[in-house]
Protein 1
Amino acid sequence: ICKLKGIYVPFSCIIETKDASLHKDGGYGVMSQKAYIWDLDGTLVNSYAKIVPAVRGHLMELGVDYSEEYIREIALKSSVGKLLDQVGPMIGKDPELLKEEFEVRNDREIVGIEPMPHAKEVLKRLTRRGDLCFIYTHRGASCYTIVDETGLRPYFTEIVTSLEGFPRKPAPEGILYLVEKYKLDRSRSEERFSRN
């Protein structure tokens, strides 16, 4: 949990940097700051209230009757993709096709996702003081729709989604990409995960 002026918000990772501050003109300069690498679902936005019923509806259409509690548990512990990997063989359907179908359905049903309480305020404070904010998420293209509709997009230097092809978290490649690109100092990092 990140405490910023009395507001608590979960985040993925904080990394301090002193060599690569990104200025508004796009140039780099020397300045001490922090970089915040955020997860999206369940951290910046309260998406599970929409995701879980969407998954349940999709599964019910396929003849699979899992409770919302079970779906939420799997989604929080691993991912919706892992759940669909499990369901595919049960119903004789390719899990990758199930994921594609769900992504289309999920994109239609993400309307109305709200930011977590105080998320926008915290992001605004961080970026005003010169800190860098990034998103690193398992979500694909729908991430951009969500951050646009919630008004969060202006606060992020870069958004890394599944479209970039990095292995799923906790594999470090996505974070290492950001560390290398923005010359972030890994020796002074602290991680916090929203799913703990």
Protein 2
Amino acid sequence: GATVTVTVAPVGGNPTAVIGAEALVDFSPDYEHPVLISCNWWNACLVLDGWSSTGTDLTYLWFDELEPVPFDGGPVTTNCYEVGTHTITLTVTDAAGLSASDSKTIEVVTAPLAIELLIEKVNESHIPRRTKRELVATLRTAQKQAGNEKIRQTQQTLDVFEKKVRAQVAPGYPEEARVWIRWSQATSEGMEKCIK
């Protein structure tokens, strides 16, 4: 078989660094940074990649904030983070020795806390009290399941919550319904990566 060599010339000459990450969910405006859901009580692991970075013959170095020593080299890495806020930096260097960096700040939140915050949203709303009680009871079940690391059950219970919101809340309170469903879906989606 013939061998084809493709040389990609960098546009503009300087390398660029771009951090890619999966499994992050959006809880804005409550959390300004993307959220990584922890399915246990203390940490969560994140797969990071530098595939979208540009340049020739790049070397990759990954840093956690304020740590002078990189935790990994290479275009793809997995790192685990404790609950809280973390800033990750990727530095790429090309064949000519030119460097570029990209940083990403993430927030690690436990699944039970994410559900607790949704319970607060429901409790603070002006929807009818009976509906509120029913929705909160459903979320408390989900929260208990999440606390026991029963991920599939948690997702199913959140699904039930979303259906109830669509049926009982959306007609009279469309804005609340939109926010709650988005939050519930983000929690569920954020837990997906924890399923072994």
Protein 3
Amino acid sequence: GTLPTLTRKEFIFDYRFGAPIPSGGTFTMPVTAPSVNGNIYVDGTIYPRTDAGIQSAINTAEITGATVVLPPGGYALGANLPILINKKVSLIGSGLSSQLNVASTVGATTDVFLIQPTAGEVLSGIKISNFSIVPVSGTPARYAFNFDNATYAGEADYGVMSNIQVGTLGSTITIYANGAGMGNGSMTQWMIGPTN
């Protein structure tokens, strides 16, 4: 988010006269923060309202432990899909007014989100909620969420996904779990709330 603009004026205090003496000019400086109160906002200030902006915020959150927040408004998804989640992260929208708009040019084999742990890793604690995924036109993309764990032999266990509305994409399947060859399955102990 953006913090208020700060104005600073420097003074030297002259004890002989008991008054400050201006020692420098006044300067104004906008202050921006990538994270406010442990949240990273994809609001167009630092992180653009695009798939690349969301990915960049997720990458930062995976390191810092912050929650990625999608404020109300539209988000353009297309050239940089899928959005990869391969570490513990929370991605929280502001309800259906946080609308991820999938471009009609996104191919039929491209997913919106790819949850893909690294080899041998058990990925726990992902939280995804409160936004909508809608096509701009047509039926672009494949799955809204692809848990492709077989590719890298990792597991995505113990997560929460809720309050997500998905429009008609290229596949009739909203959440796909490809867990072939997984010891404990690719997607166990997930709480999946209302998704439309």
Protein 4
Amino acid sequence: HYTIRLGSKDYIAYHKQAIPIYSPFWGPIRQVAFDELKVNSNGTLQTVVATRNGVDRSFVKNNSYNQTLKVVNASSSASMGKGYDASKAFDNHNGTLWAAPNNKPAWLKADLGSVKNINSITPVFDIVDGDYEYEIEYSNDDKNWLTYNKALNSNAKEWPVQSFKKIKARFIRLTILKQSKEPKRMGLWELKIMGK
């Protein structure tokens, strides 16, 4: 747990179990939550009520140069079923995820609707420091693809890994080539595409 004061309000960062759970034998999946701490008039803390969406993020300064770009259509080569579809990687919610069976490479694709200026792309893998071997590509026509970044996630020094490269593109595709830490599935909490 961690507490912080921003302006005149206090907040707590803590772990909670994400919903839905895959199955009992895979164990719980924990997420970081951020909620407001409220103090009673006598100085004691009120019970923290966990929320699904967390607190209003208006205290975070908005940078028009680097915003999360809206995905108008999300698709993937596979998913673990209902509740784990491609759209979950673009819903700006760290309690939902896209997941695919870990039996062959799987891709996730974002259509931004039109060509956008992209500054960075950040995959937030379900095992954030997992040994995901992956490739990110971009395209304007969904046919001809160029490499944005190709990497082994576990080689990074901090996670999630944010790749910086200024491009113009309409489509972004991330392909997970392989990983070994989770035998049944592979996936992303979020694929953050930042730009203007």
